[in-house]
Amino acid sequence: MHALLLIAHGSRREASNDEVRDLAQALKHQTGDEFSIVECAFLELAEPSIPDGVSVCVEKGAESVTVLPYFLSAGRHVVTDIPEELQKAQAKHQQVNIKTAPYLGSAQGIIEILIGLSKQAS
Amino acid sequence: MHALLLIAHGSRREASNDEVRDLAQALKHQTGDEFSIVECAFLELAEPSIPDGVSVCVEKGAESVTVLPYFLSAGRHVVTDIPEELQKAQAKHQQVNIKTAPYLGSAQGIIEILIGLSKQAS
User: Fold this and answer.
1) CA pair distance B27, A116, nearest whole angstrom
2) What part of A 81-100 touches B (C-beta under 8 Å)?
3) Mapping DSSP to helix (H, G, I), strand (E, B) and coil, where does residue A108 land?
4) Per-residue pLDDT of chain B (122 residues; tens, 9 = 90+)
5) CB A85 within 8 A of CB A50
6) CATH of the structural domain A2-118, one choice from 3.40.50.1400, 3.30.450.40, 3.40.640.10, 3.40.190.150
7) Chain A contact for B121, CB < 8 A?
8) How far apart are CA B96 and CA B62, in angstroms?
9) How confident is the model over B15-36, as pLDDT tens digits?
């Protein structure tokens, strides 16, 4: 089974963390057959942590975990912190294939989304 | 003339701020005739500030400024801090029509982008 793990920064404001949890739910409904497990995890300030998020996927039967960084820029979090957390998870679950997708801000389609939003200004 | 002002958080890491500046440039090339001025501004840690970013637009001849929050969640920055900064700008440029677009994380299209990214994992 393949798992998708959406990783966000985490916020002191629980409503922001819930936005991420809702997004993971929405992804679950739309990824179709590709990912039978979709979870989220947080770098800091919210639960589950990244290693715990990977563990949740493994407990649900994941043989591979695709990590999806919900971050806008290739800052320290994306370049250093997330890979470090994933190393911990990989050490714990050596049989699991952990892959990382490009971070959100790197996607070409962001520009089209921003143009669409600009037309909804009020 | 209409201006589009992309607003990001700002980072201590200058490369992250440059990603935002590059994105504003890319937007400039793709918004077509709708916005003859496209600039960016930062809530903190980078220049220009939001009021200064509005001023740049006005100096370039903007009669209206559409603010586009490059943020993933409706946290304090989106709900409180950016509106406060825009009030300062509006007080300084009372003749300018300042409108705010929905923040990036609220866009429906984000899910399709995330699904696309998940297929590029390695």
Assistant:
1) 11
2) 99-100
3) coil
4) 999 999 999 988 899 899 999 999 999 999 878 899 999 999 999 999 999 999 999 999 999 999 999 999 888 899 999 999 999 999 999 999 999 999 999 998 999 999 999 999 98
5) yes
6) 3.40.50.1400
7) yes
8) 7
9) 989 999 999 999 999 987 889 9
Cβ of A72 within 8 Å of Cβ of B104? The answer is yes
Nearest chain B CA: its distance from A6 CA (Å): 9
Q: In what order do the strands lie in the sheet with B2-8?
A: B37-42, B2-8, B64-69, B97-100
> What are the DSSP E strand ranges found in A24-80?
37-42, 64-69
Report pLDDT digits (tens) over A16-69: 899 999 999 999 999 878 899 999 999 999 999 999 999 999 999 999 999 999
Reduce the DSSP state of residue A42 to 3 states and report it.
Answer: strand
The full set of domain ranges for chain B reads: 2-118
**Closest by Cα among B75, B84, B91, B74 to B49:** B84
| SS3 call for A109 | coil
ipTM for the complex shown: 0.94
Comparing CA positions, the residue from A67, A26, A116 lying closest to residue B112 is A26
Alpha carbon A32 to chain centroid distance? 17
| Cα three-residue angle A49-A53-A57, rounded to 5 degrees | 170
Q: Distance between terminal CA atoms of chain B?
A: 45
